Backbone:
């Protein structure tokens, strides 16, 4: 390895861990490391050290500093999120309210099923008897909630696309389409249409992780939401196969509850976009 | 365990000492690499402080007010054919903190009794 290559490795690492930080903080860190690398090369030239030896020194400095870099990055992210200017447009408020209403509705619809499973972990999903009227109301609430969540995700798409110039908006639209189309087509008996419903948790997980990256949501919320969405992919097929899922059913509640939290975050507004800076590479 | 705002870890003491020593030798401001080199030479260490460790410590020392920094004029750097540098210098508060840290090291009992009184 040459010293030049080692320097490139350092630059790539700095560009990577500073991604998503305010541009001034990112630029300062990149410039400071650039200056340090230059001085290290300069010193090496004056002492006539071999390029391989300098490369080893550079890589060692890089590797030993990684834990500190990560700690610094987390700290800067927290500081940036705290000082970030947020704004709430009417569209964002509507999307937020739909997320809260949808999350609440889906929680209400899921609770009777989840509590029945917890009471009898060996029960098969479709063996659970609910009274006819009560069951119909619960299913109606659940369907209305899924529509609200799909609309919320569908509304978020254009907001993210126009505000942050992000292609993630397309993912949101696909998820929203899957939610609405899957539900409506399944209701009229189109075979396999229910599978399209999986696009909703899949897309919402991607969108909420993106929101965390732009400081529009806490990382803990993004992780919980994504884990709950992943649980859907495991638990719903198990339910469809009439497999008892027992206490694992509790995880289903994580998804709608995390949607409520997403709605509350959106009510607080979205961060104003910061100007991008060119990549170091 | 979270440490107190003004408390210094050994690397931060070394950075302040390096900065004060360089100032004493006629360099009132020093960039990161120069401080790392001064620490290495002073401690007789084999290698320079890691990038992440050094710049995280400098960032913290500046936030608590023990160091102040300024960016070099890019024109000066361009004329020298190198990237612009960030120069640090120890503030009066930083010098005081360094003196206290040295006292605590030379007389650990003072620190303990002060903690007991608090």
Residues:
């Amino acid at each position: 390895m040459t010293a030049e290559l080692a320097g490139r490795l350092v630059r790539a690492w700095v560009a990577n861990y500073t991604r998503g930080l305010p541009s001034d903080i990112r630029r300062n860190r990149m410039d400071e490391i650039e200056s340090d690398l230059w001085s290290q090369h300069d010193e090496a030239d004056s002492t006539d050290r071999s390029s391989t030896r300098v490369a080893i020194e550079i890589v060692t400095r890089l590797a030993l500093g990684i834990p500190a870099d990560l700690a610094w990055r987390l700290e800067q992210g927290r500081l940036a999120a705290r000082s970030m200017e947020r704004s709430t447009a009417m569209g964002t408020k509507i999307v937020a309210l739909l997320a809260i209403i949808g999350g609440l509705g889906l929680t209400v619809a899921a609770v009777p099923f989840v509590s029945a499973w917890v009471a009898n972990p060996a029960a098969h999903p479709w063996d659970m008897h609910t009274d006819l009227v009560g069951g119909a109301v619960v299913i109606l609430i659940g369907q209305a909630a899924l529509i609200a969540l799909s609309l919320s995700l569908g509304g978020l798409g254009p907001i993210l696309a126009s505000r942050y110039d992000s292609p993630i908006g397309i993912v949101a639209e696909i998820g929203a389409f899957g939610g609405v189309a899957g539900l409506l087509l399944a209701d009229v008996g189109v075979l396999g249409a229910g599978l399209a419903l999986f696009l909703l948790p899949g897309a919402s997980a991607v969108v909420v992780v993106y929101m965390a990256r732009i400081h529009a949501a806490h990382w803990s919320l993004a992780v919980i939401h994504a884990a709950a969405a992943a649980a859907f992919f495991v638990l719903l097929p198990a339910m469809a196969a009439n497999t008892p899922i027992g206490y694992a059913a509790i995880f289903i509640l994580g998804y709608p509850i995390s949607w409520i939290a997403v709605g509350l975050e959106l009510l607080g507004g979205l961060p104003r976009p910061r100007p991008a800076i060119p990549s170091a590479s | 365990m979270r440490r107190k705002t003004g408390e210094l870890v050994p690397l931060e003491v070394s950075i302040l000492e390096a900065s004060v020593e360089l100032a004493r030798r006629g360099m009132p401001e020093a960039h990161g690499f120069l401080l790392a080199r001064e620490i290495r030479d002073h401690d007789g260490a084999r290698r320079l402080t890691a990038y992440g460790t050094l710049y995280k410590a400098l960032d913290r020392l500046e936030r608590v007010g023990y160091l102040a920094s300024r960016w070099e004029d890019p024109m000066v750097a361009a004329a020298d054919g190198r990237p612009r540098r960030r120069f640090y210098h120890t503030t009066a508060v930083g010098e005081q903190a360094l003196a206290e840290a040295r006292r605590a090291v030379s007389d650990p009992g003072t620190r303990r009794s002060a903690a007991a009184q608090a």
About this structure: Residues 18 and 79 of chain B are 28 Å apart (CA to CA). Chain B has six helices and two strands. The radius of gyration of chain B is 16 Å. The longest helix of chain B spans residues 10-24.
